[in-house]
Amino acid sequence: MSEVYAVRRARLRECCNAVGSTAALVSRPANVRYLAGAAPEGAVLLLGGTEDVLVCAAPPDDRSPQTRPDESLRLHLTDGIGADPAVAAGGLAVAQGVDSLAVEEHHLTVTRHREIHSAAPKLRLAGIAGAVEQLRVIKDEEEISCLRIGAEIADQALGELLESILVGRTERHLALELERRLVDHGADGPAFPTSVATGPNAGRPGHRPTDRRVEEGDFLSVCLGATYRGYRCEIGRTFVIGTAPADWQIELYDLVFSAQRAGRESLVPGASCRDVDRAARHVLDSAGYAEALPARTGHGVGLEIDEDPQLTPAAMGKLDACVPVTVEPGVHLPGRGGVRIDDTLVVRPEADGGPELLTITTKELLAL
Q: Does the first or last residue of the chain, that is N or C, have fewer Cβ atoms within 10 Å of its Cβ?
């Protein structure tokens, strides 16, 4: 992996040179991990004038290769309890003869910015906006492999839950059980707080589990994700509790399923992000549910669960091959519940079989 990290850092250095900086300070945790491998909490990466340095307040965890940073990097431990690695990195940059340092202004606080300037007053601080985030959008096959394994873990955890007795159990209890199963099957942990929503809560985006108990006839919406080696995937499914879904439940489910399929089928290299959103949204708009739709159809995933690209009506840009995204349309009807269907896929050209579906739990409307 050292060569992979070195190539990534070289690409960032090119971005810095383009804005007149010979060095960069990377402080956003996901960006540090992308460029340096697993690193201690609070670590920052200095792309220096003469060498690259990982600056940490504590030594890295070396229990396994997955918890170690790139071995080709020099490690620098800060002096004293509470010392800020970002401020220390500024001093190291000056020692390397750097006069202009590009920083992640969207992540660095005003206080830290001032402290760096105070410690190294001759150092000019410039911005690199979201340069690393843009480098992260297209994944290599090793990254996609981690997402694929995370998706398998999430599928397995969800499948096991569906084989258990659900009636009478609370949303909160089911969410905790799912998160335990994720870890049992090899996940680092959940990719985000697991959502379990029943009855009138079903289909509500971002629903936080409550003590409401599962009842016969409920819609049950579940949204969970696994983190594997830092990479996060997502899956969401909706089921019916009982043996005979009501007509309105079948109709609503079939409609959301059609919208989700339209979104999935539009995931081709070169497709506009807004066109993917439009493909799914049009199905639901045409059925009269415009006011019940979430603000977006999906988003990118990777080292964070919510990355670029964003699949929204106003999104700019186009999709590239090897970009993993979610497609997650849904409808929530206040007081009645709703449906959400969510998959993680990787954009692939038609010659390679089209979009690769990572989350494979059935999308058939199951009565549990």
A: N
